[in-house]
Amino acid sequence: MNLDQIRYFLLLADKLHFWQTAEQLPLSQSALSRHMQRLEAELGFRLLERTPRQVRLTAAGQLLRTEWTRLLRELDAVHRHARQVSTGEVGSVRIGHIGAAAYGWLPRLLARFTARYPLVHLDLLEVSATEAEHPLLTYQVDVGFWREPATNPALVSEPVFVEPLALVVPEQHWAQAETFTSLAALRDESFVLPDLKGSSAYVQTLRDLFSQYGFAPRGTVTSDFGTTMLHLVAAGLGVSVLPLTYASSPLPGLRFIELPQQSAVYSVWRREDDSAVLRHLLEEARAQPPQ
To answer: Could you tell me which residue ranges the HTH lysR-type domain spans (predicted)?
Structure first.
């Protein structure tokens, strides 16, 4: 018994006419008759009652017509779903991201992606910049958007956009964008920053920045999360340097002064991952403008 024989039977059960059924398939009438005989022989009971003038379904034939019709519809639905999974139209992707990505770039990317692939489920996880690769290597996420290029050979990365850094100060602070000339003027301020003893690429960018201005920042509070740093600056615990993306934060009481230095955001994924859904998301990320 095979699917073709079942489909032949269902068409015959609909038309109850060997010649008309054979013509539509197309098969010869004798070939169709042989298929039905083999099907009945394998099942061990008759599906059809044949007379010189008509074909009728037996009770067993009527039951199998109903059940096989239902099962074939379910099988066709499974096949359609499998095709959608293979092409990336259906599925899921787990996305790790830094907090800054949520201020504009990532929501725009996901809006474009879901408009094109509405049946794909997205699961987001905010990660610390200092532990960026760990969620990928432990299969907690499928792709990451953060400021660290891949260092592990099992991972691949590429830059998706570059943005300026910005000095972040409380609203009442003396520094103004119109008169600001150099970060060196803030050497005596208390800074809220990540731990500058860290080894991440972003931390190295900050170390290079302060080295360029000729001073090491002092501070009593450190954090790896940009949103936390914004709240600390707004509370008057110091000033900070963050990617300009954070200027989109709705948090009041802050002022952003753009700096000439920049920071890149990378997409990072596992080298062996051949998911079609992931491939589509990376294509959208490459096409997504930074602003």
So the answer is: 1-58
